[in-house]
Amino acid sequence: MTPGGDARGPLTDPAGVAALLRYERARGFAGVAPDATPGFSGNKADGVRSQDEDADLIRSAQERLHAHALRPDGHRRALILVLQGRDASGKGGIIRHLSGAVGPHGLQTWAFGVPTQEEAAHHFLWRIQRRVPAWGRIAAFDRSHYEDILAVRMHGLAPRVVWEGRYDTIVDFENGLTAGGVDVVKVMLTVSQEEQAGRLRERITRPEKAWKHAASDLADRRRWHEYTQAFEDVLVRTDADAAPWYVVPSDRKWYARWAVGRILLHHLEAMRLEWPAADFDPATALAGLDATTALIAEG
Ligand code: AMP
Ligand code: MG
Q1: Sheet strand arrangement including 78-84
Q2: What region holds the Polyphosphate kinase-2-related domain (predicted)?
Q3: What's the rounded Cα separation, in Å, for the pair 188 and 82?
Q4: In this structure, which ligand is nearest to the CA of 196?
Q5: Beta carbon of 156 within 6 Å of any ligand 1 atom
Q6: Which end of the chain has fewer CB atoms within 10 angstroms, the N or the C?
């Protein structure tokens, strides 16, 4: 049942984790247990240690991406990581963790809230298109173009015919990105009712979290099952091998961070980017370096 699995030890390799968490139509969104830890059989300390090792690997892979982007003959690649999920499912925390690992030059983060007046005056993909990362970079999206289906549908912001048409528009948009060298990796977090209640309660009762509380989160929570259906519809209609969805259990924050890191690593490794060959002659450059040392010594 666990491809790439337990024989490898307590932690499953990135490709194995990605395979376990990949959206499956038969299982659906609701079929993924929010408190599970697929591919992970160590303890929490193992997970945290593995996160640190993965952070180094992700940083190095992003540097290879960037090194290629700087070279006229290098590969032109970039990656968008989309995070979706209910309120308090941990989207922001995962992105903070990743940007800490990679750094702001390599991983840019964008949060998409209620469209501003300017954004609302454009096609819904306009604000997304502006955040497509440059070659060599990763962009993490805290919510995304999928809100133009989800939020619009759930809050009745446009007629059904409008948001219904967006599934195909989004598939075409993402196909264009991936065909052109921008990978699109999509994560739907799943949190249990109990865990979400605990996290929303903290926002209400703890001063340092109160800024995250929104009355609309409670209104949305009441419609739990309708949201589940809306997520199922997004997944079934927009999952593609070129722009795959992953469903990540996120009741345990450390697991969700570990798993999303592994998924990202899997996609970076799948690009198979080596360090580009030097575009200078090392012997000549070394001789030049030694010459500068000699000149400095002479004063
Ligand atoms: P938060 O992620 O807590 O900052 O909340 C952002 C809010 O903006 C959520 O309630 C989203 O549903 C809402 N939102 C994001 N994108 C859109 C959109 N395109 N149309 C309407 N509401 C949106
Ligand atoms: Mg919120």
Answers
A1: 107-111, 138-142, 78-84, 182-190, 245-249
A2: 52-272
A3: 8
A4: 2
A5: no
A6: C
**What's the rounded Cα separation, in Å, for the pair 103 and 159?**
41
196 φ, ψ to 5°? -60, -40
> How far is ligand 1, taken at its centre, from the CA of residue 39, in Å?
32
Which residue's entry shows tokens 């010459």? 291
Give the Cα separation of 25 and 19 in Å (integer): 14
Helix (H, G, I), strand (E, B) or coil at 228: helix
Of 82, 86, 112, best ligand 1 pocket probe by most atoms within 8 Å of the beta carbon: 112
Tens-digit pLDDT profile for residues 66-87: 999 999 999 999 999 999 999 9
Mean pLDDT of 238-256: 97
pTM score > 0.70 for this model?
yes
Q: Which amino acid is at 226?
A: E
* Residue among 114, 153, 217, 220 to mutate when testing ligand 1 (max atoms within 8 A of CB): 114
* Beta-carbon count within 10 A of 75 CB: 18
Q: Is the CB of 165 under 6 A from ligand 1?
A: no
Which pair of structure tokens corresponds to residue 236? 């079934």
Quick one: which atom of ligand 1 is closest to the CA of 142? Answer: 2
Q: Is the CB of 258 under 6 A from ligand 1?
A: no
Domains and CATH numbers, the chain: 14-298 (3.40.50.300)
